[in-house]
Amino acid sequence: MVNKAEYEAYEKHRQQNATARVSLPTEEVVRPRIPFEACLSAWGEVEKVNDFATPASDPPGARTYALRSSRLLNFPDYLCVQLAKYTIGSDWLPQKLDVEIELPSSEKKEEFRVDLAGLRSRGGLQPNEVLMPDLDAKITNVHSTQPISVEPNIEYVSHLVSMGFTNLASCKACILTNNVSLETALEWIMEHLNDPTLNDPFTEQQRADSLSAQTPANEDSIAMLNAMGLTRAQAVKALNHTGHNLEAAADWAFTNPDVLNDVQEPPNLSNSSGMTTPTSANQCRVQQHSESSNTSTTSSVYELCAFISHMGKATTDGHYVAHIKRSALAKCIPNETPVHHSGSPCCGGTDDEWIIFNDEKVAKSESPPHRLAYVYVFRRVDAPID
């Protein structure tokens, strides 16, 4: 906070007036003022992740802590920064932080620039760093030597044993059919009578693999996981890994995000020759951009070109307005002469002016409230104009 003394003096004055039931004028309000650079530094700080299941332990999955930090691999043409102004109070109700953000000053009055060089990623594995082992593979290996934990239906087992089948084969049939019914278990045994491993001990991993091979993923379960943010391929993998148990699949998916990220998505469309076809021109541009810019060599300096503010004291009311710098607005239709309607003022102005968009009302902003913004939109200084 850059105005701590001023804010504390205001709070003392406000409390005195509140006791006397006197309201202070709005123009006298003093809010905590936080430097924008401090927000960026907080975002890039090393974070301690507690209760982390490490794949490096023996056996894997021991609970410890991990250190995590975020960096920018490349710098896009436009960067949108959302401030964490909405939080949860001590009463567990959502509330809005009434603070101001101090943007970096510049030689020009209405120009705000920020350098993100300190957040540039060094790119990939660094010297003296070792990649963590694959937690999913290690846990699979451990499970392959451990006894199963699922109990077969005792009634079904008794019926099967009375038919002359061994107890082990009967238990295996019930578990591998998920105790669906006696008829299903009997059918499974009849299909595997010639299997030499019918009476061999089996593992939990074999059960999961068998279920995955026999039962396709339920579309309703996939839809539920899609609603949680997973792709179809990720949902299918999670369901297969957990024997098609929706609750277990959701838990496994969100505790093993790195494993899910390895899933290759199937192509959305394909032509008659079998060649994949992008779904849109935007997808082509995204693919081209991701392949050609693993690390950024562009400028790390950004200039503020727009911001969005929330008008209201609470998270449950108010509305949003936008301010856009005139230099970021289209002057007119390309290759067309600007048209001025009779009776309306000319739209001319300098590039340093800010324009406010409040529902259907559009006007020049005499005093743009940069410090009260909720979302900032920056443009990289060397980004292409078109």
UniProtKB/TrEMBL annotation:
Domain (USP): residue spans on this chain: 1-381
A GO cellular component annotation in the UniProt record: ubiquitin ligase complex
The name this protein goes by in its record: Ubiquitin carboxyl-terminal hydrolase 5/13
SMART domains in the cross-refs: UBA (SM00165)
Domain of life: Eukaryota
Domain UBA, chain residue ranges per copy: 149-192, 216-256
Region listing for Disordered, in residue ranges: 262-295
Biased composition (Polar residues): 267-289
InterPro entries linked: PAN2_UCH_dom (IPR028881), Papain-like_cys_pep_sf (IPR038765), UBA (IPR015940), UBA-like_sf (IPR009060), UBAC1 (IPR052476), USP (IPR028889), USP_CS (IPR018200)
One Gene Ontology MF term: cysteine-type deubiquitinase activity
SUPFAM superfamilies reported for this sequence: Cysteine proteinases (SSF54001), UBA-like (SSF46934)
PROSITE patterns: UBA, USP_2, USP_3
BP-aspect Gene Ontology terms: protein deubiquitination
